[in-house]
Amino acid sequence: MINRRSVVAGFAALGSLPVHLALAAPGTAFSDAAFTAAQKAGKSILLVVHAPWCPTCRAQEPILKKLLAEKKYSGIVVFSIDFDSQKDLLRRFNAPKQSILIGFKGTKETKRSAGDTEAMTIEDLLETTL
Prior knowledge:
The chain is of the alpha/beta class. Helix content is 43%, strand content 22%.
Protein backbone atom coordinates (compact mmCIF):
# COMPACT_ATOMS: atom_id res chain seq x y z
CA MET A 1 0.00 0.00 0.00
CA ILE A 2 1.31 3.43 -0.90
CA ASN A 3 1.08 6.01 1.86
CA ARG A 4 1.82 9.71 2.02
CA ARG A 5 5.28 9.28 3.56
CA SER A 6 6.42 6.90 0.83
CA VAL A 7 5.27 9.34 -1.85
CA VAL A 8 7.12 12.20 -0.13
CA ALA A 9 10.23 10.04 0.26
CA GLY A 10 10.05 9.10 -3.41
CA PHE A 11 9.97 12.73 -4.50
CA ALA A 12 12.74 13.69 -2.08
CA ALA A 13 14.88 10.83 -3.38
CA LEU A 14 14.72 12.28 -6.87
CA GLY A 15 16.74 15.21 -5.56
CA SER A 16 16.17 17.48 -8.53
CA LEU A 17 12.53 18.12 -7.72
CA PRO A 18 11.77 21.06 -5.46
CA VAL A 19 10.39 20.06 -2.11
CA HIS A 20 7.25 22.15 -2.61
CA LEU A 21 6.00 19.50 -5.03
CA ALA A 22 6.07 16.95 -2.26
CA LEU A 23 5.58 18.93 0.94
CA ALA A 24 4.06 22.19 -0.28
CA ALA A 25 7.02 24.08 1.23
CA PRO A 26 8.85 26.64 -0.86
CA GLY A 27 12.45 25.93 -1.77
CA THR A 28 14.53 22.86 -2.32
CA ALA A 29 15.40 20.18 0.19
CA PHE A 30 18.24 21.23 2.46
CA SER A 31 21.64 19.81 1.61
CA ASP A 32 24.86 20.61 3.43
CA ALA A 33 26.81 20.98 0.19
CA ALA A 34 24.34 23.40 -1.41
CA PHE A 35 23.92 25.42 1.79
CA THR A 36 27.68 25.71 2.32
CA ALA A 37 28.22 26.71 -1.33
CA ALA A 38 25.52 29.40 -1.09
CA GLN A 39 27.06 30.72 2.12
CA LYS A 40 30.59 30.80 0.66
CA ALA A 41 29.24 32.65 -2.38
CA GLY A 42 27.71 35.29 -0.09
CA LYS A 43 24.20 34.52 -1.31
CA SER A 44 20.95 35.59 0.29
CA ILE A 45 19.49 32.48 1.94
CA LEU A 46 16.17 31.60 3.54
CA LEU A 47 15.69 28.44 5.58
CA VAL A 48 12.06 27.36 5.92
CA VAL A 49 11.31 24.88 8.72
CA HIS A 50 8.12 23.26 7.51
CA ALA A 51 5.70 20.49 8.43
CA PRO A 52 2.99 19.43 5.98
CA TRP A 53 0.43 19.11 8.80
CA CYS A 54 1.15 22.59 10.26
CA PRO A 55 -1.59 25.21 9.69
CA THR A 56 0.86 28.07 10.29
CA CYS A 57 3.24 26.62 7.68
CA ARG A 58 0.33 26.41 5.24
CA ALA A 59 -0.49 30.08 5.95
CA GLN A 60 3.16 31.09 5.33
CA GLU A 61 3.34 29.20 2.05
CA PRO A 62 1.34 31.56 -0.24
CA ILE A 63 3.01 34.61 1.33
CA LEU A 64 6.47 33.21 0.68
CA LYS A 65 5.59 32.09 -2.84
CA LYS A 66 4.23 35.53 -3.71
CA LEU A 67 7.20 37.40 -2.25
CA LEU A 68 9.82 35.07 -3.70
CA ALA A 69 8.24 35.47 -7.14
CA GLU A 70 9.05 39.19 -7.04
CA LYS A 71 12.13 40.19 -9.01
CA LYS A 72 13.64 41.85 -5.93
CA TYR A 73 13.72 38.54 -4.03
CA SER A 74 14.31 36.17 -6.94
CA GLY A 75 17.98 35.73 -6.03
CA ILE A 76 17.26 34.36 -2.57
CA VAL A 77 18.24 30.71 -2.25
CA VAL A 78 15.50 28.90 -0.33
CA PHE A 79 16.06 25.64 1.51
CA SER A 80 13.29 23.68 3.16
CA ILE A 81 13.86 21.67 6.33
CA ASP A 82 11.28 19.02 7.10
CA PHE A 83 10.30 19.30 10.75
CA ASP A 84 9.27 15.67 11.02
CA SER A 85 12.29 13.97 9.48
CA GLN A 86 15.31 16.28 9.81
CA LYS A 87 15.73 16.55 13.59
CA ASP A 88 19.52 16.93 13.27
CA LEU A 89 19.01 20.14 11.28
CA LEU A 90 16.49 21.43 13.80
CA ARG A 91 19.16 21.12 16.49
CA ARG A 92 21.86 22.58 14.25
CA PHE A 93 19.80 25.69 13.49
CA ASN A 94 18.16 25.90 16.92
CA ALA A 95 14.69 25.50 15.44
CA PRO A 96 12.61 23.74 18.12
CA LYS A 97 9.31 23.98 16.24
CA GLN A 98 7.86 24.19 12.76
CA SER A 99 7.00 27.44 10.90
CA ILE A 100 10.40 29.00 11.61
CA LEU A 101 11.99 31.19 8.94
CA ILE A 102 15.72 31.95 9.17
CA GLY A 103 17.45 34.49 6.95
CA PHE A 104 21.15 34.53 6.09
CA LYS A 105 23.44 36.77 4.10
CA GLY A 106 26.37 34.52 3.37
CA THR A 107 27.47 32.96 6.63
CA LYS A 108 25.76 35.53 8.86
CA GLU A 109 22.28 34.90 10.22
CA THR A 110 20.35 38.11 9.68
CA LYS A 111 16.94 37.45 11.24
CA ARG A 112 14.55 34.70 12.23
CA SER A 113 10.88 34.42 12.98
CA ALA A 114 8.64 31.75 14.42
CA GLY A 115 4.99 31.36 13.53
CA ASP A 116 4.82 34.59 11.56
CA THR A 117 2.01 34.82 9.01
CA GLU A 118 2.11 38.57 8.34
CA ALA A 119 3.29 39.42 4.83
CA MET A 120 4.98 42.67 5.90
CA THR A 121 7.09 41.12 8.64
CA ILE A 122 8.03 38.16 6.46
CA GLU A 123 9.07 40.65 3.78
CA ASP A 124 11.14 42.48 6.41
CA LEU A 125 12.95 39.22 7.12
CA LEU A 126 13.65 38.72 3.39
CA GLU A 127 14.98 42.29 3.18
CA THR A 128 17.64 41.52 5.78
CA THR A 129 19.12 38.87 3.48
CA LEU A 130 19.70 41.25 0.56
